Amino acid sequence: MRKIIGLALFVIFSSQVQAGDAAKGKEKSLICGSCHGADGNSAIPANPSLAGQAESYLVKQLKDFKSKARDNAIMSAQVANLTEQDMQDLAAFYASQKVQHMAVASKYIATAQKLYRGGDSDRDIAACIACHGANGEGMPAAGFPAIGGQQPAYTMATLKAFRSGARNNDMNGIMRDIVAKMSDEQIEALSYYLAGLH
Ligand code: HEC
Ligand code: HEC
User: How many A from CA of 171 to the centre of ligand 2?
Assistant: First the structure.
């Protein structure tokens, strides 16, 4: 009897996913680094930087790629063989790294800063700052990702994907509703501005 209880407890505990381990995540990130940079700072405009991103947001995206709730052929292939523990470890590693910020061309600052901090009442666009924070650091507990220091080409592509509905894994359509009201010029200005926001 005692043996059976012991075995049952062993099965219960060993099947639980442990909190992410950044050191193990680093070991598992070799392939990821070829596209996202060894420390999660991407040198390739189309690929997002992951450094300093909230752990919970990263895990959510990896799970969404796996279930195809976020439909992307490249990333679905990358996550196909990851376990939930792998995802936790990888997310812990990238969250522990520091994102590098880029210089922002001055022509984008006025338009983007106004939108970021105050929204656009004519178009009924909510201020980004309310959810993504004063410095683009996000609010991890609420599921709002960090967006400062991101590759501008990626930000632009993902905002346009929310607008077209190609990316639709945002809870309650939060981002889709906002981006639906934005012009191409506003998306472009914000994308370059965010790359330097910190
Ligand atoms: C061949 C290049 C490539 C490889 C290898 C790769 N990725 Fe990606 N990754 C991408 C691209 C491109 C995107 C953007 C997808 C999109 O636009 O939806 C992305 C997106 C992501 C995102 C979403 C980021 C965000 O801000 O929402 C995460 C998280 C991620 N990758 C993690 C990983 C991990 C972990 C690995 C290794 C297991 C990995 N990637 C391997 C190219 C790659
Ligand atoms: C009410 C809260 C809220 C507001 C306001 C908001 N966002 Fe978001 N944003 C979110 C959430 C939630 C997500 C994550 C969706 C998911 O889980 O995939 C997100 C995701 C994003 C992403 C994708 C990040 C990545 O790494 O792929 C970008 C870029 C972004 N928001 C930019 C903006 C901009 C620019 C504004 C202002 C015009 C804005 N957001 C306003 C809640 C908000």
Answer: 10
